[in-house]
Amino acid sequence: MVFMCKYSVKKNIGRKLKMVTTSARFNLIKPDLLKIVKGAGVAAAGAVATVLLQMIPGIDFGPYTVAVVALNSVICNAILKFVSVNKY
Questions:
Q1: How many Å apart are CA 83 and CA 51, to the nearest integer?
Q2: What are the beta bridge partners of residue 20?
Q3: Cα 65 from Cα 41, distance rounded (Å)
Q4: Which pLDDT tens digit goes with each residue over 16-74?
Q5: Contacts 24+ apart (CB under 8 A), 63-68
Q6: Percentages of the chain per state (helix, strand, coil), in multiples of 5
């Protein structure tokens, strides 16, 4: 999906021309907001995974809970990248 706005720039990629959307400073456009929501979803999935892990009897992360949430967020993001189709 290619978004058009007044800040679009044409780049030559091989033989195809592709529109690259950019946003100006201090301005959020729809692709920016979608990336923010996706990142928040990954962070929330990491927090939920940590809560589910702590429900297992005998597991208590104590002061390391923050690190475990961060690690679970990275793992959730890796799983998301693994199961989705990525274009670069």
A1: 23
A2: 9
A3: 19
A4: 666 777 778 888 888 889 999 999 999 999 999 999 999 999 888 999 999 999 999 99
A5: none
A6: 55, 10, 35
Instruction: Give which of 8, 28, 30 is closest to 19, Cα–Cα.
Output: 8
Does the residue 19 lie in any domain?
no
Q: How many domains does the chain have?
A: 1
Domain range enclosing 49: 28-83
The candidate with the shortest Cα–Cα distance to 26, out of 7, 39, 10, is: 7
Residues 6+ apart with CB under 8 A from 10: 17, 18, 19, 20
The 8-class DSSP code of residue 56 comes to S
Nearest to 22 by CA among 41, 38, 47, 2: 2
